[in-house]
Amino acid sequence: MSYVSPGKGYSRDSRYLTTRITADGRDGYRVEPGRYRLVVSRACPWASRAVIVRRLLGLEEALPMAVAGPVHDERSWTFDLDPGRRDPVLGIERLRDAYLARDPGYDRGITVPAVVDVPSGKVVTNDVPRITLDMALEWTPYHRPGAPALYPPALRPEIDAVNEVVYRDVNNAVYEAGFAGTQEAYADAYARLFARLDRLSARLERSRYLVGDGITEADVRLFTTLVRFDAVYHGHFKCNRQKLAEMPVLWAYARDLFQTPGFGDTVDFEHIKRHYYLVHDDINPTGIVPAGPDTAGWLAPHGREALGGRPFGDGTAPGPVAPGEAVPAGHTPLA
């Protein structure tokens, strides 16, 4: 399976299924607790956004989750973590089956996160940017008491602006560097990535969170790249000017979030490493998965409380991880 096209830069296929699940059902799919299944992989940064937001908002019962294994082939993510290697609710072995149920001629990416309509077995949406926003805005009757406002109206223009540059220069730039097929494409992505990280560091030197005084959608989107940085992007994707652990402000910011309920307790470092180092076999043909880095540093004091801020705004922290959803012991320093 090839991820690098020699002589070309990397271009992400963002042709998503943009059907929305809304409170009024205007796209044909109404918010209903238990009707849908959120399919994720803990390895994938885009899916990890949805895992974090779902937990912060307390949607575990309303929107049940299926966790695919960290390794897939050119056909699909698979449910090899489940008994019989089959999702117990959807009854399928591969996520591809739910995409083909939606469209037998589907020829785009079989991506996570994906929200599947359980009665029909069809994928409703894999629209990464929209899924978490709709969790925050359309599923509000099923939020837990004390759920934070992750996309508050007054801050939306600023959140949107931050998200745009973080996506272009951080979330996607690491892939543009890692999958570059020319030196020039790599150099451009590398330069944009570290220039943006320097700007974010300057911003976060005086503010505990990216926008406002509490956690928002913007923090979730940046965190999922930062938490993978030293484990995979620094070496595997050649984003090696510095490790995250060598960028003091961003490292403290990332540790602050990691130690906040809803963030670090969703992170599976073993799944992350297995995915990148095994699936991208044109970059890592030996299939050797690194033993490091040591993740214990994620639990070191961060000192960010001195900047003030209220992680959950007027709300409260989520409770314990739902039964059956804990990251396996040994896959996280929190275990």
UniProtKB/TrEMBL annotation:
InterPro entries on file: Glutathione-S-Trfase_C-like, Glutathione-S-Trfase_C_sf, Glutathione_S-Trfase, GST_Omega-like_C, GST_Omega/GSH, Thioredoxin-like_sf
Location of region: Disordered: 309-335
Record domain GST C-terminal: where: 152-276
PANTHER family for this protein: GLUTATHIONE S-TRANSFERASE OMEGA-LIKE 1-RELATED (PTHR32419:SF6), GLUTATHIONYL-HYDROQUINONE REDUCTASE (PTHR32419)
Compositionally biased residues, Low complexity: 315-335
Full protein name: Glutathione S-transferase C-terminal domain-containing protein
Pfam families in alphabetical order: GST_C_2
